[in-house]
Amino acid sequence: MACGVEESIHQPYTTGFYLPGENTEIEFTADASSIRGYDFIGTVDEHDQETNMLKVLGRNRFALGDTVEILDPDQAEINKFTISRIIGETGEDLEAAHNSYVVYLPLAENHAAPISKHAILRKKSSPHQ
């Protein structure tokens, strides 16, 4: 599973000290905040293949309509799905989940591969973050 350069948290890129004559004073700028391409939103606690439901331990906010990627060390490909329903621990439907929420997310019927416990869920960061 390859991770592209823009898919990880990083500082803005510069030529650094590589090119002769470049102004090395700009190597560390005051506004060089981290660039985030994705937000870690939770981990898989369980995948019930019979119902095709994920039990998720939330770590950051996610909501209905979000497109989520599953990074599973036991699968070569990154799987994507759109959250169509969020079910709370007591069975209530939720609009969103947050840190420390335990929720259930149904997967599409065509998702047949088992998902490992502790697989990571992420979503693309919003541009205003």
List the helices and strands and how they pair.
Blueprint: E1 38-48, E2 53-58, E3 62-63, E4 67-71, E5 79-82, E6 86-88, E7 93-94, E8 96-97, E9 102-106, E10 120-124
Antiparallel strand pairs: 1-2, 1-10, 2-9, 3-8, 4-5, 4-10, 6-7, 6-9
Structural class comes to mainly beta
Number of helices: 0
Oligomerization: single chain
Instruction: Please report the total strand number as a whole number.
Output: 10
**What portion of the residues fall into strands of 2 or more residues?**
25-35%
Biggest sheet strand order reads: 5-4-10-1-2-9-6-7
Q: What is the end-to-end distance?
A: 26 Å
Helix content: under 10%
Average pLDDT figure = 82
Uncertain segments of ≥5 residues (pLDDT<50)?
none
The arrangement of helices and strands along the chain is EEEEEEEEEE
Task: Describe the overall structure.
The chain is mainly beta and 129 residues long. Helix content is 0%, strand content 35%. The protein has strands at 38-48, 53-58, 62-63, 67-71, 79-82, 86-88, 93-94, 96-97, 102-106, 120-124. The strands form two sheets. It has an eight-stranded antiparallel sheet with strand order 5-4-10-1-2-9-6-7, with no helix packed on it. The chain has a two-stranded antiparallel sheet with strand order 3-8. The chain is globular, with a radius of gyration of 19 Å.
